[in-house]
Recover the amino acids of this structure.
């Protein structure tokens, strides 16, 4: 298991190529310690919660299309199961590290607790570049990865879902591999599945829909609406593209969007349905008509009202936070703002809707998918979206109220609520043995 010392951080992260400039697990632990101090949580509990329950590293050898064999490195981390089986996505990306997966698993624990759903936190990842792999290679890697972690996962134990670089297609392979090994279909083993094999209506759009609901509540508190608000969105995958579409439908002007190849900008607003069609057709946003090219760094600093980082971690840092011009930040991505940037933005009066609140819609509808799978009884889309709205809006109100009561940030309030719930469950269950 990897140590989380400063030396180790430097050794494991190549800062010239990785998007991770700081160790995300150290950030997650730093946030937890701050929550502990702010909300007077027993330091013994913080000692328990700052560790991951289980972290597994696996080798995934597969035969590539050219006949050679390559071994990929994969991880599955379960942070906490005090409130229920652990839940969390699987990331395929070249920059994946064990400490990134640990941080993401800890954030999943807080997210599920904040939403009041009966799950703990987990995450998985494989160091690979899915864009450079064929479908056959990806299927082989996914099935072998599933086999390597098969004793860890299961509907009552740990339930994976999509994250960066994975989609319903990979979830179908995980579902099939697990089911083949069990000898019968096990719908509850994974969420984010295609509709044809037990997925839930509304799951694909759920993370963005949850983010939209949060933003609409925040705008209400600010006595305004999305109409005419200028939004810049980084990342145009599952989360970013649906958020862009929803904001466009709500009457906002989406002035900038981007993917890993860079962004496009039009101060009068981008035609989002056309941009989605263009991206589907060409695989990128470069060259989209009626918009000028910008970099991902420039997008963060654009003159806009709403900034939604929906790609990777650590894009708003101490280096650029003071130059951010948005009034509201919707964290579609996990961990896009570093603690140092948080302090700067808070002093500037920027309202941050933190990841554990703003992107929790995905895990909420994953919970619905799991429930539907266990019951083998599927709901209408309106029912899914209505229940999602209830849960997200309740969590928003609770966070907003605690923020006012404690005169703190939305992040501190959201993490505070979540950590206190997990701490309470841990205390109630008692320390085994
Ligand atoms: P995705 O793979 O569907 O899309 C990721 C997008 O980010 C792509 O457009 C990609 O081109 C872009 N990207 C990659 N590297 C980039 C870079 N360096 N700069 C700018 N853009 C870059 O992934 P997703 O599922 O949309 O996840 C995005 C974020 O949302 C992640 O932080 C993920 O953890 C978080 N999230 C996802 C879900 C979900 O349900 N999918 C739920 C909660 C949180």
């Amino acid at each position: 298991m990897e140590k989380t010392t400063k030396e180790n951080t430097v050794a494991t992260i190549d800062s010239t190529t990785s998007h991770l400039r700081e160790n995300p697990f150290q950030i997650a632990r730093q946030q937890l310690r701050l929550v502990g101090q702010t909300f007077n949580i027993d330091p013994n509990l913080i000692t328990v919660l700052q560790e991951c329950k289980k972290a597994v590293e696996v080798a995934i050898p597969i035969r590539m299309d050219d006949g050679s064999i390559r071994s990929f490195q994969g991880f599955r981390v379960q942070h906490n199961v005090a409130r229920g089986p652990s839940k969390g996505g699987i990331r395929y990306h070249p920059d994946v590290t064990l400490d990134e997966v640990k941080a993401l698993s800890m954030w999943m624990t807080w997210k599920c607790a904040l939403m009041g759903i009966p799950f703990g936190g987990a995450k998985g990842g494989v160091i690979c570049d899915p864009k450079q792999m064929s479908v056959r290679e990806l299927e082989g890697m996914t099935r072998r990865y599933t086999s390597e972690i098969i004793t860890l996962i299961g509907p009552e134990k740990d339930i994976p879902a999509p994250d960066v670089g994975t989609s319903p297609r990979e979830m179908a392979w995980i579902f099939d591999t697990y089911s083949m090994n069990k000898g019968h279909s096990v719908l509850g083993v994974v969420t984010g599945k295609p509709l044809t094999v037990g997925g839930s209506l509304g799951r694909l759009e759920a993370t963005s829909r949850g983010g939209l609901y949060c933003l609409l509540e925040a705008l209400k508190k600010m006595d305004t609406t999305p109409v005419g608000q200028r939004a810049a969105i980084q990342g145009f995958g599952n989360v970013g593209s649906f958020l862009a579409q929803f904001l466009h439908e709500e009457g906002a002007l989406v002035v900038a969007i981007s993917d890993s190849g860079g962004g496009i900008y039009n101060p009068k607003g981008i035609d989002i349905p056309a941009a989605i069609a263009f991206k589907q057709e060409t695989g990128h946003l470069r060259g989209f008509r009626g918009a000028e090219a910008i970099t991902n760094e420039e997008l963060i600093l654009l003159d806009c009202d709403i900034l939604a980082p929906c790609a990777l971690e650590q894009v708003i840092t101490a280096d650029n936070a003071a130059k951010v011009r948005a009034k509201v930040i919707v964290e579609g991505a996990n961990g896009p703002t570093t603690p140092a940037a948080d302090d700067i933005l808070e002093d500037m009066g920027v309202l941050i809707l933190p990841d554990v609140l703003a992107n929790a819609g995905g895990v909420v509808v994953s919970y619905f998918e799991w429930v539907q799978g266990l019951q083998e009884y599927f709901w209408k889309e309106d029912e899914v979206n209505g229940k999602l709205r209830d849960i997200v809006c309740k969590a928003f109100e609770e966070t907003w109220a605690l923020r006012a009561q404690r005169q703190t940030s939305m992040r501190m309030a959201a993490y505070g609520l979540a950590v206190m719930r997990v701490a309470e469950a841990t205390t109630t269950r008692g320390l085994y043995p």
Observations:
- Confidence is low (pLDDT under 50) at residues 1-15.
- The longest helix spans residues 381-406.
